[in-house]
Fold:
Amino acid sequence: MHFTSERRLDDGVLEREFALGEIPGILWTPEAASASAAVPLILLGHPGLGLHKMYPRLVARARHSAAEGFATATIELPGSGNRPGWPALDQARADLRRAMQAGEPVSDEIIDALVLPLVDRATPEWQAALDDLLALPEIGGPVGYSGGVISIGIRLAVVEPRIVAAGLFAGSFVPRAMFEEARQVTIPLHVLLQWDDEGNDRQAALDLFDAFGSKEKSLHANMGGHTGVPQYAGDAAAQFFARHLK
Structure:
């Protein structure tokens, strides 16, 4: 990992862009973070639309977390943004769009092709980024994971022991194979569900929540579509991470 840019935002948050090999990423740290006052870290997941497009939402989440005393970081997902193209992923995305525009059910084959290779490739990249982030003197852990493709969050919760709590957004398609992995998840979970999410199978989201093996898990359902998450939902998530990372 090497840093490629640095700037101080108007609220004192330090924003640094970095590269982990070919993988771009961004790290935000609170103004008070230092080697003598290391802070916990939250990994900010996102849906893979590209960091440039997602930046306004990501930096808003980072500022909110910094106000709570947390560093946050994110990386570009495979096949997204300025990373090399991934024809198989592009084809799966096109198949998904066609099915949804035609009002047809999204088949298990499309969901598997879209999600499973992404999980397999993105998870070790997140772990490699975590290795380098935790080597920074101003970041001391513990670590949480927040948002993004829920299947990536599930895989990380299973294989990455440094992640001690996760806030997940039930707003993406989940392959059936991930339900088995969900049963292996044991860390505390805060799951957000938009009740009227037009692109999400509500019953599948409820079944997934039921499958999680965590003894501490909470489901927060709000009325509205995919992009209608109320502000107070973020406040509840912040309280969840404050309980488990401080």
Summary: Residues 108-134 form the longest helix (27 residues). The CA atoms of residues 112 and 175 lie 5 Å apart.
